[in-house]
Write a structure and sequence with these properties.
Belongs to the hexokinase family. The chain is an alpha/beta fold and 493 residues long. It has helices at 7-17, 23-42, 108-126, 128-140, 190-200, 213-224, 290-298, 308-311, 313-329, 357-365, 372-382, 389-421, 423-426, 437-441, 445-454, 460-466, 475-492, and strands spanning 51-52, 64-72, 76-85, 90-98, 153-159, 163-167, 170-173, 205-211, 231-237, 241-248, 269-273, 342-343, 384-385, 430-435, 467-471. α1 (7-17) runs parallel beside α12 and α9 (313-329) crosses α10. The structure holds beta-D-glucopyranose. Beta-D-glucopyranose (BGC) is lined by residues 73-74, 160-162, 177-178, 212-214, 236, 240-242, 275, 277, 308.
């Protein structure tokens, strides 16, 4: 490196190189992902869970009706009602609240009472005509028998954690992710937990479908996608990361009896929730820096969700915080010192999880000549005064490296699923629905994914061009409604 480069920038570039994820590694990752996909389809307990969703067809846009949905998955909890118009459009009404941190580490009853309370408030506010009469009747009735057959809202429950699904509205929690830790819920049926809390409030609501947010995203994208192309994959790149795709039923060899009437469906397909956040927990192929190792130790689930911990929004801020501190401690770099600046002792930079991923998006997006936006945020949000333009540029070098590695890593499961589906050989367009703060707000996240897809020789430029990626906004709400509708249809057929 020529000596004219300021030492702080040279040091930042050295750290940034640790996050390189070259084409050869992308290819190695894809091969391993395909192996782990097969393993997960053939046996229980594999690293990649490959969970059958019991959803055997994706919508075509003609579905109609009014449904409720609850979305519990990470940062927020949402209750919505969705009117499907039957022409690929819908109207959605929602209430959204941030999940209080104390409810992420508590007892299951506390969490589900909280959600049922949200449903009650939502119905009262937006569907009062149904709500008052029903609730009053229920509260005055002597026994449940008196109202058990009356009209109720069908609710699709988007629960974005790994669940061992055993029916369209039944599934037991395998493990918590994304900072949640409520041990008494593990192994329990999460639909039952929600239904009990709903019944305790006498609400006219039946939990009729359970879906992962990726399954919801796939369903929603398929409902709204342009050109009536059947969507192959629904993926989330947000607080957590995961994907659900359409698999041939005959490939899901761990389902022992494919002639069981529950699977003997004409489509010959089933949506699989991969739970790719736990891809390569054994670290056969995942890139690992000191920062990744140190972060893992601080989580509630060390050694688990190792792919997610390198890719998703919950973790990128912490990887960045650790790399900024490492740069700060490098005596040759003199980060934040050139303009007489300093880090205040109470700065969030010294706090575990102190950097939110939105900071990475802000940094990557700052193209002002003197990187003023970054300097302002460092001052306001981190109590760092007098960061020079070179300091800001050094922070940007780190952010870019971490964000780009996350996006290139994201291409691994996407590429593997594209190749395994065989669709690039038979279709002109292969549709993918995505959602989540990273893919929505991190500048060029999708562009970096595409670059890495082109690095996979079996996909190349020609294959990458066929890939149509679209944001499935409100995917988990609409998808849950669509799943409740599928459940209703199955019940009445
Ligand atoms: C969960 C998945 C979920 C993903 C995205 C992961 O932590 O295990 O079930 O789909 O986050 O929300």
């Amino acid at each position: 490196m020529p000596s004219s480069i300021p030492p702080v920038l040279a040091a930042a570039t050295r750290i940034a190189r640790e996050f390189d994820y070259p084409a050869s590694e992308v290819r190695r990752g894809v091969k391993e992902f395909i192996n782990q996909m097969h393993e997960g389809l053939s046996k229980e307990g594999a690293t990649l869970n490959q969970i059958p969703s019991y959803i055997t067809a994706v919508p075509d846009g003609s579905e109609k009706g009014l449904y409720l949905a609850v979305d519990l998955g990470g940062t927020n909890s949402r209750v919505c009602s969705i009117e499907l118009h039957g022409d690929s459009t819908f109207a959605l009404t929602q209430n959204k609240v941030a999940i209080p941190r104390e409810l992420m580490v508590c007892t299951s009853s506390k969490l589900f009472i909280f959600i049922a309370g949200q449903i009650e408030a939502f119905l009262e506010q937006h569907h009062n005509e149904h709500f008052e009469a029903h609730v009053l009747k229920r509260r005055l009735a002597g026994t449940r028998e008196e109202y058990k057959d009356e009209e109720v809202f069908d609710l699709g429950f988007t629960f974005s954690f790994p669940v061992n699904q055993v029916g369209i509205n039944r599934g037991t929690l395998i493990r918590w992710t994304k900072g949640f830790s409520i041990p008494d819920a593990v192994g329990k049926d999460v639909c039952e937990l929600l239904q009990t809390a709903i019944d305790d409030l006498d609400l006219p609501v039946r939990v009729s479908a359970l879906v992962n947010d990726t399954v919801g995203t796939l369903m929603a994208r398929s409902y709204t996608a342009p050109g009536k192309t059947e969507t192959l994959l629904g993926a989330i790149f947000g607080t957590g990361t995961n994907g659900a795709y359409v698999e041939k039923l005959s490939n899901i060899t761990k389902i022992a009896d494919l002639t069981d009437t529950r699977y003997a469906i004409p489509t010959g397909k089933m949506v699989i929730n991969t739970e790719w956040g736990s891809f390569d927990n054994h670290l056969n192929v995942l890139p690992t820096t000191t920062f990744d190792r140190e972060l893992d130790v601080e989580t509630v689930n060390p050694g688990i969700q190792m792919f997610e911990k390198r890719v998703s929004g919950m973790f990128l801020g912490e990887i960045l915080r650790r790399s900024i501190l490492s740069l700060f401690c490098d005596p040759t770099a003199k980060l934040f010192q050139s303009a007489g600046g300093s880090i205040a002792p109470d700065s969030a930079l010294y706090k575990l999880w102190g950097i939110d991923t939105s900071f990475l998006s802000l940094v990557e997006a700052d193209v002002t000549p003197d990187l003023r936006v970054i300097a302002d945020s460092l001052r306001k949000d981190f109590n760092i005064d007098g960061a020079s333009a070179i300091d800001c540029q050094s922070v940007k070098v780190l952010v870019h490296a971490i964000g780009k590695r996350a996006a290139r890593l994201s291409a691994v499961p996407v590429g593997a699923i594209l190749l395994e589906s065989g669709k690039l050989e038979t279709e002109d367009v292969v549709d993918i629905g995505v959602d989540g703060s990273l893919v929505e707000y991190y500048p060029n996240f999708q562009g970096y994914i595409r670059e890495a897809l082109r690095d996979i020789p079996e996909i190349g430029e020609a294959g990458e061009k066929k890939v149509q990626i679209g944001i499935a906004k409100d995917g988990s709400g609409v998808g849950a409604a669509l799943s409740a509708l599928v459940a209703r249809k199955e019940e009445s057929s």
